[in-house]
Amino acid sequence: MKVATLSRTARGFLKSHVFQRSAQLFLIVFFALFLVGCGTPAERVDWLASRLGLVRETRVGQPFQHVVYRNRIHGGDVLHVYIGGDGRPWARVDRIAEDPDSPRSVVLDLMALDARPSLYLGRPCYHGLAKRARCTPWHWTMGRYSSGVVESLASVLRERLDGGGYKRLVLIGHSGGGTLAMLLAARFAETETLVTLAGNLDIDAWAAWHGYSPLSGSLNPAHQPSLSSEIQQYHLAAGRDRAVPAALIGEMVSRLPHACFMLFEGFDHDCCWQRIWPAMLARIDSMSRRAACR
């Protein structure tokens, strides 16, 4: 494991035109939250995506349907893929939610800052699809990281990579989306970079930490074969995160010889990843892998 710091060049990147884009994004999110009482969580996310200029599509995976959002940027051979968190699997501690959607998405906010061709890859049974065929509450509770979920995500992603002629893949996941990003990385030879933010990288340790029942129907990244050393790995943790504590992420990353651990003391589970994302994108785009973790 290597502990990374932001370079002077990356910090300067924050002062560029992308910083202005961050301010615009803040206003959009502010008004989205102002309207939080209107519509379903899925409809609110749709509204935000539309305001961010993203295109919504529904794709058929194997076997689930998936909502995806893509930006309008074309060109190049690299695709950035964003995967969101678990949302709200439980309505309360003793009752499973009828719909796991959350009214906002951390990774959509990040994707809006990305100047590369980018895709938000929606999870099965999320984004208003909870009542569709094949979906059951198991798919957003115990089986949220199951082989069937991962394989369906992979089928949609494979179609997108092949259809767009992309040769390189950057996988980015927040919270449980980081779990899925790590599980997907091994399935694609195109994977060049993996970034997780507050990622649940060892689901057994996470369940034990919180006193939850183990997610017995799910795959645990901690028990999968190590990813290729050719894949750049950045695992970001928040010092104030109570959902996925930084200590759990650090312990997992300490077992990964080719991974970078990055701790942001003032952040929590959802805040404030936008602040560092332009610099993180600059790091991802860097051609010097040897210097990437310094």
The rounded Rg comes to: 18 Å
3D shape? globular
Summarize the main sheet: 9 strands, mixed
Please write the string of helix (H) and strand (E) elements: EHHHEEEEEHEHEHEHEHEH
Look at the structure and name the CATH superfamily. Answer: Alpha/Beta hydrolase fold, catalytic domain
Low-confidence stretches: 7-19, 27-36
Alpha plus pi helix count: 9
Q: Compute the separation of the termini in Å.
A: 11 Å
Topology:
Blueprint: E1 2-3, H1 8-13, H2 17-34, H3 41-51, E2 55-60, E3 65-70, E4 78-83, E5 90-92, E6 95-96, H4 106-111, E7 118-121, H5 147-164, E8 168-174, H6 176-185, E9 191-197, H7 203-210, E10 232-238, H8 246-253, E11 259-264, H9 277-285
Parallel strand pairs: 1-11, 4-7, 4-8, 8-9, 9-10, 10-11
Antiparallel strand pairs: 2-3, 3-7, 5-6
Could you characterize the architecture of this molecule?
With 294 residues, the protein is α/β, with parallel strands linked by helices. The chain has a single domain (2-285), classed as 3-Layer(aba) Sandwich (Rossmann fold), CATH 3.40.50.1820. The chain has 9 helices and 11 strands. It has helices at 8-13, 17-34, 41-51, 106-111, 147-164, 176-185, 203-210, 246-253, 277-285; strands at residues 2-3, 55-60, 65-70, 78-83, 90-92, 95-96, 118-121, 168-174, 191-197, 232-238, 259-264. A 9-stranded mixed β-sheet has the order 1-11-10-9-8-4-7-3-2. Helix 7 (203-210) links the parallel strand 9 and strand 10. The radius of gyration is 18 Å and the shape is globular. The model is unreliable at 7-19 and 27-36 (pLDDT under 50).
